[in-house]
From TrEMBL:
UniProt similarity note: Belongs to the DyP-type peroxidase family.
A GO-annotated cellular component: cytosol
Cofactor: heme b
Domain DyP dimeric alpha+beta barrel: 70-195
InterPro entries, per database record: Dimeric_a/b-barrel, DyP_N, Dyp_perox_C, Dyp_peroxidase
Name under which the protein is recorded: Uncharacterized protein
PANTHER family: DEFERROCHELATASE, DEFERROCHELATASE/PEROXIDASE
Keyword field: Heme, Iron, Metal-binding, Oxidoreductase, Peroxidase, Signal
One MF annotation (Gene Ontology) recorded for this entry: peroxidase activity
Domain Dyp-type peroxidase C-terminal: 245-413
SUPFAM superfamilies xrefs: Dimeric alpha+beta barrel
Presence of keyword Chaperone: no
Length: 482
């Protein structure tokens, strides 16, 4: 398995000694000798350097995502020749002394590939149909979608990231200088790691980026980490089930979603539905409810191992915080929700021993970053979201119908999943969707695990997105030379 090739597909950024350089990048920014690491490594994340780290929400950054139209495909391809030699591998990203001042990723929609003259069928019908057409399968209305995502007009996306807003601005203007009027930005949104001790946490407050699949042949997995065949994440690798054009090797499909989070509303719900553990304060009981919805405490500690109270030491320990499987001696895992509800977000997405044999087909690599401001005092007190915030969600996989779409449709949205339990689990209370109709879930209260709760609203509202093809370096060369 090739580290270089794999991450070539995921992380594209100017190399320190790149020739030619982006015109707008001066020597100090394009060749940084860093004194600080661009990646954050909050307690609980696998240690840096770690393969998965580069694709998770681990940048100490601002990040800009720009959805673009390719106005002049011929000019675009020609100018991309200047960008391609600057593309480098993840080795550089993992070594602080060679990290660039800003990273760059690029991916194309089906419309964009057509525009660039690629007529080959990449054999992913969900990708080629686009996300707008897929909304009914995800059980969501597109009424809440950002208008630019409605339809199939977006051609591509570039993602720049840096820990310095100056470098980020420079990187963006450099890119725009190079590509000039061959592209037109139609939508852009800035992601932002949360401040202080919330770095690495999403807006509900939970540490994110803990559990990722690792790829067969890549070193030793951490305890509890699942190992999947390379072809589950990369095209044309072992156990990619589909036949693809050979030039797509080591590329991936990416599901991008802008997911708005209603944080004060999420908190109000928990306050109104505290777990009924004798002797627990209202605040502790409300926190337990939220932890059971997620399957983890805010620190990252899994409720399966810490069922009643948060355990920040466990949450911060990457050798223990992912090492659980929902089975416990003396408990029947068909009915045990004392530890973790069947419907919890992480259990719905990765059911571990709930499926026998353990599932290897439906894994994604997640790479999200929060966007929007911190919750204000006024919002917290009124219980109402007034300013948009949420997660810029990115899922990497080789097959969208088995990856992102499957998890949303067949597991999170499906009240019957996981089957053969003592109670119908209901929806994932965090991310399950039901076309805007009432959602129910079970297992929120460990004292009444069969209890059925109607959720008053969706705490996460989709603002839409698009499906993209993220080429490996060789695939990118193929595209621009076609
Ligand atoms: C705003 C929306 C979302 C929030 C706030 C959220 C939050 C979280 C958190 C806090 C974790 C636990 C940390 C970790 O294990 O890395 C997690 C895990 C996970 N989430 Fe989400 N998530 C969201 C949307 C999604 C979506 C749309 C999907 C897939 C379609 C997804 C799939 C997963 C998976 C696969 C895991 C790992 C579970 C495991 O391995 O145990 N999430 N999420
Ligand atoms: C992020 O970078 C800033 C500026 O270099 C630094 O002050 C801060 O400590 C970093 N945060 C983390 C979590 O590493
Ligand atoms: C949501 O609505 C679409 C279109 O009407 C339908 O095809 C789909 O089955 C619905 N999904 C759910 C979970 O009700
Ligand atoms: C897609 O892959 C499947 C499975 O290998 C194959 O049967 C089918 O012919 C392929 N379709 C295209 C358009 O390549
Ligand atoms: C689940 O985890 C426990 C504790 O680590 C272990 O003893 C058991 O073998 C695991 N079960 C499965 C099916 O992997
Ligand atoms: C576990 O519970 C299920 C359903 O609640 C039941 O059918 C099964 O017999 C139980 N298994 C054991 C070993 O008690
Ligand atoms: C929970 O309530 C919903 C809506 O009334 C219902 O469809 C579902 O079957 C109930 N589930 C359980 C486990 O009682």
């Amino acid at each position: 398995m090739k580290l270089t090739a794999l991450l070539g597909g995921l992380t594209i950024f100017p190399a320190p000694q790149s020739v030619p350089r982006f015109p707008a990048l001066g020597p100090t920014t394009s060749r940084s000798v860093r004194t600080n690491n661009m990646l954050i490594n909050p307690p609980g994340h696998p240690p840096v350097p770690h393969l998965d780290e580069v694709t998770t929400s681990s940048f100490n950054i601002s990040n800009v995502q720009a959805e673009v139209l390719i106005v002049d495909p011929t000019g675009f391809k020609k100018l991309m020749n200047m960008v391609i030699p600057t593309i480098s591998t993840v080795d550089i990203m993992l070594d602080m002394s060679t990290q660039p001042s800003a990273s760059l990723n690029m991916a194309f929609s089906q419309t964009g590939l057509h525009k660039l003259g690629i007529q080959d069928n990449l054999n992913d019908t969900v990708f080629s149909g686009g996300q707008f057409a897929d909304a009914p399968n995800l059980a969501e209305s597109t009424n809440t979608w950002v208008s630019q995502f409605k339809g199939t007009s977006i051609h591509g996306v570039y993602i720049t990231a840096s820990d310095s807003s100056n470098s980020l601005m420079q990187q963006n203007s450099a890119l725009q200088t190079v590509l000039g009027t061959t592209i037109q930005v139609v939508y852009s949104i800035q992601g932002q790691a949360r401040p202080g001790d919330q770095a690495g946490h999403e807006h509900f407050g939970f540490l994110d980026g803990i559990s990722q699949p690792t790829i067969e042949g890549f070193g030793t997995p951490l305890p509890g980490q699942v190992t999947v065949p390379a072809g589950k994440l990369l095209l044309n690798r072992e156990q990619d089930q589909m036949t693809r054009p050979s030039w797509t090797i080591d590329s991936s499909f990416v599901a991008f979603r802008q997911l708005k989070q209603l944080v004060p509303e999420f908190n109000t719900f928990a306050n109104d539905h505290p777990a009924s553990i004798p002797g627990m304060s209202q605040a502790q009981a409300a926190e337990l409810t939220q932890a059971r919805m997620m399957g983890r405490w805010k620190s990252g500690a899994p409720v399966d191992l810490a069922p009643l109270f948060d355990d920040p030491v466990l949450g911060a320990d990457p050798t223990r915080n992912n090492n659980f499987n929902y089975t416990h001696p003396g408990f029947n895992s068909s009915s045990d929700q004392i530890h973790c509800p069947f419907s919890a977000h992480i259990r719905k997405n990765v059911p571990r021993t709930d499926l026998d044999p353990i599932d290897l087909a439906h894994h994604i690599l997640r790479s999200g970053i929060p966007y929007g401001p911190e919750v204000t005092e006024v919002e917290q007190q009124s219980g109402q979201t007034m300013m948009e915030r949420g997660l810029l969600f990115l899922a990497v996989q080789s097959n969208i119908a088995s990856g992102f779409q499957f998890l949303q449709k067949a597991w999170m949205n499906n009240p019957e999943f996981v089957k053969h339990k003592s109670v119908l689990p209901g929806l994932d209370p965090v991310m399950g969707q039901n076309n805007g109709s009432a959602r129910f879930t079970t297992g929120l209260d460990p004292m009444n695990p069969e209890g059925n709760t109607t959720l008053p609203m969706q705490f996460v509202v989709s603002r839409g997105g698009e499906y993209f093809f993220m080429p490996s370096l060789s695939a990118l060369r193929h595209i621009i030379s076609s």
